[in-house]
Design a protein that fits this description.
Elements (H helix, E strand, L loop, with lengths): L6 H20 L6 H19 L11 H22 L8 H8 L5 H18 L14 H8 L1 H25 L10 H24 L4 H20 L4 H18 L3 H30 L5 H31 L10 H6 L14 H9 L17 H32 L1 H15 L6 H34 L1
Helix pairs in contact: 1-2, 1-5, 2-3, 2-5, 3-4, 3-5, 3-12, 4-12, 6-17, 7-8, 7-9, 8-9, 8-10, 8-16, 8-17, 9-10, 10-11, 10-16, 11-12, 12-14, 12-15, 15-16, 16-17
C-alpha cells in the first residue's frame, strides 16, 4: 500500500510548522493566530496519514499524536467555539467576554507551539517509521494461540476488580482494610488493572471468531459501566475511545475511513461524557429539564471549562513568562518520591492555590475549587520561557519512551500503553501529576504484564521442548 503522503513531505511540513509556531510565540504581531491554527491542523492530518499505514501498526495509539489531538481539541477548537458562537443565556456577558479573551491570546499560541512540537517528534517515532507489526512478534503469536484461556482470565481479573470497585463505592469496602494506607493503594490500583486486562483481552480477541470479540466487547462495556457509575466517567470513556482506536490500528483501515471512524469516536466519547454529566445533574435536581441540562453541560463542559482554564493559563504566562529560574524545577520530581522517603516534600496538588492566584476564584471549605491549568503552566511558573521548553522536553521524552516500547514489544506492551493513555493524554493537569500518575499507574499494571509475558514464555519453552 502506498503512503498517502511521502514521509519527506510530512517531515518538511512538520519542521516548518514547528518553527513557525515557535516564531508565533515570540512575534505575535507578525504571525496571526488563525494562520497558526490552520498550520497545526494540517500538521495533525499529515501525521495521521502516516500513522494509519499498515506498516505503522498500531500507529493511531502513538501518544505523541494523541496528546496533541486532545490539546488541540480542548484548548484550540473548544475555546474558538466559545468565543465565536452565540453566547449561552446562562453565561453572563462579562463572564463570556473575560474567558473568550483566551482565543488568540499568547497562551493559545504556546499551546499551538507545544502541539506542533509533539507532532514533529511523532514523525521520528518508531510508529511513523514503519514499526514492526504487533502480531508478528513471538510472544504475541503464543498469546493468540491460547487466546481463549488468556482472554477469559484477563476478563475475570477485570471483572473482579470492577466488582471490588463497585462494592467500595456503594459499601466502603476498602475503608475496612486493617493495614493503614492499603485501602487507598488498592483504590488507586483498580482502574489501571481493569484497563490493562480489558485491553489485553480485546487485543487477543481480534484474531478470534466474531463471537469471541463480541463477548469480550460486551464484558468490557459492563466493566466500564461500573467505573462510570462510580463517578469516574472521564477516564473510562477515554479508555473506551483508545480501545476502539486499538482495534482500528490492529486490523488496519484505509486513511479516509480511519479519519472518519476516529472523528466519530471522539465525538461519541465527548457527547457520552456530556450526557453522563447531564444525567448526574438531573439526578441532583430532578425538576431540571434534560434537554436544558444537556445544553448547559455541552456549553459548560466542552467550551466554558476549557476557556476558563485557558484564561487562567494566560494569566500564568502574563505573570511568569520573563521569570528566570533560580533552581531546577522540582515539581515533576517531587511527584515521584513517596512522602515516607521525603517527609518535607512540597505539596504536589496545588490546584486550590492556582484557582485563587490565577483564576480569581473564591475558595473555602464550603466552596472548594481547583484548577489544573494544563501541563504547561507549572514549568512556566518555575522557569518562565526556559522552564516551558524544559517541561516540553520532559513530556515529549516520556511519551517517546512509551511509544517506542509499544512499537517494540508487541501485544502486551500495546495493551499496557493503551491502558495508560487516559493518563498520558490528560493535558489539563499539573505536570507533577502527569509524571507521578503515569509512573504509578504503570507500576500497578506491571505485575500483570509480567505475568502475561512469563505465561507466554513458558508456553514457548514447553513447545520447544
Amino acid at each position: 500500500m502506498t503512503d498517502v503522503f511521502p514521509r519527506g513531505w510530512v517531515i518538511a511540513f512538520s519542521f516548518l510548522a514547528a518553527v513557525t509556531t515557535l516564531a508565533g510565540v515570540f512575534f505575535p504581531d507578525v504571525l496571526p493566530s488563525a494562520a497558526l491554527r490552520i498550520l497545526v491542523a494540517i500538521q495533525l492530518a499529515l501525521l495521521a496519514s502516516r500513522l494509519v499505514s499498515p506498516k505503522a501498526r498500531p500507529g493511531l495509539l502513538n501518544p505523541l499524536f494523541l496528546l496533541p489531538v486532545v490539546a488541540y481539541a480542548l484548548f484550540v477548537i473548544a475555546p474558538a467555539c466559545f468565543a465565536t458562537l452565540p453566547r449561552p443565556s446562562f453565561i453572563m456577558p462579562e463572564i463570556h467576554a473575560r474567558y473568550a479573551s483566551y482565543f488568540g491570546s499568547p497562551a493559545e499560541r504556546i499551546v499551538l507551539q507545544f502541539v506542533s512540537l509533539c507532532l514533529l517528534a511523532g514523525i521520528y517515532d518508531p510508529f511513523a517509521r514503519s514499526a514492526m507489526p504487533v502480531r508478528r512478534d513471538a510472544v504475541s503469536a503464543l498469546l493468540l494461540r491460547d487466546r481463549r484461556r488468556i482472554g477469559a482470565a484477563a476478563c475475570a481479573v477485570a471483572g473482579g476488580a470492577a466488582a471490588i470497585k463497585l462494592m467500595d463505592t456503594k459499601l466502603g469496602l476498602l475503608d475496612a482494610v486493617p493495614v493503614p494506607g492499603a485501602g487507598g493503594v488498592v483504590h488507586d490500583a483498580l482502574p489501571p488493572v481493569i484497563y490493562f486486562c480489558l485491553a489485553a483481552a480485546i487485543a487477543i480477541a481480534q484474531k478470534g471468531p466474531p463471537r469471541e470479540w463480541l463477548l469480550t466487547g460486551l464484558w468490557s462495556a459492563l466493566c466500564l459501566f461500573v467505573l462510570v457509575s462510580s463517578d469516574l466517567a472521564r477516564m473510562p470513556l477515554a479508555f473506551a475511545t483508545f480501545a476502539i482506536l486499538m482495534i482500528i490500528s490492529l486490523n488496519g483501515v484505509h486513511f479516509r475511513r480511519a479519519m472518519m471512524i476516529g472523528a466519530i469516536t471522539i465525538l461519541v466519547g465527548a457527547l457520552s461524557a456530556v450526557a453522563a454529566h447531564s444525567f448526574r445533574q438531573l439526578q441532583a435536581a430532578p425538576k431540571t429539564d434534560f434537554s436544558e441540562s444537556l445544553v448547559q453541560s455541552l456549553s459548560g463542559k466542552l467550551m466554558l471549562r476549557q476557556a476558563v482554564s485557558g484564561w487562567c493559563l494566560d494569566r500564568v504566562v502574563e505573570r511568569h513568562w520573563d521569570t528566570t529560574a533560580n533552581s531546577l524545577p522540582i515539581g515533576p520530581v517531587a511527584g515521584l518520591v513517596p512522602r515516607i522517603l521525603w517527609p518535607g516534600k512540597p505539596a504536589v496538588s496545588r490546584g486550590g492555590e492556582y484557582a485563587v492566584e490565577y483564576c480569581n476564584a473564591i475558595v473555602s471549605k464550603e466552596n472548594p475549587h481547583s484548577e489544573a491549568l494544563t501541563l504547561l503552566a507549572e514549568p512556566i511558573m518555575e522557569g518562565g520561557k526556559l522552564g516551558l521548553f524544559v517541561g516540553e522536553a520532559l513530556i515529549i521524552l516520556l511519551l517517546a519512551v512509551v511509544a517506542a516500547l509499544m512499537a517494540r514489544f508487541g501485544t502486551i506492551a500495546v495493551a499496557a500503553g493503551t491502558a495508560l493513555l487516559p493518563w498520558l493524554t490528560a493535558f489539563e493537569q499539573e505536570l507533577a501529576f502527569f509524571v507521578a500518575n503515569s509512573t504509578k499507574m504503570f507500576l500497578f499494571m506491571l505485575p500483570f504484564a509480567i505475568a502475561l509475558h512469563l505465561f507466554a514464555r513458558r508456553k514457548k519453552d514447553m513447545a520447544e521442548a
